[in-house]
Amino acid sequence: QVDLVESGGGIVQTGGSLTLTCTASGRTFSPAAMAWFRQAPQKERQFVAVMVWSDGATYYGDSVLGRFTISRDSANNTVYLQMNRLKPEDTAHYFCASRGAGEASFNFWGQGTAVTVTS
What we know:
The protein is an all-beta fold.
């Protein structure tokens, strides 16, 4: 069992920045990958960014590429999402997710943190 807790959401103006934090806890934490997803009201969940835990490789959704950065603090089981040049369309609930070794999908999810970008 892995518990994920997100923090750092808030209200920011267009062009501003926020950093989201996801802290994982559990008896053993050794994921295959950690990712951020988001879901806006009345919209489907959208992939934002992922980090392969073994080598730190990162991949991003097209809508955030060049503006968002996923990073980690392995020693503290923490993943960050640095969000720059925010746009109103980035407004959503942001979720952290963990995929265990051998799992086909992200099997642990946090409760999420809300981000609102005002125009």
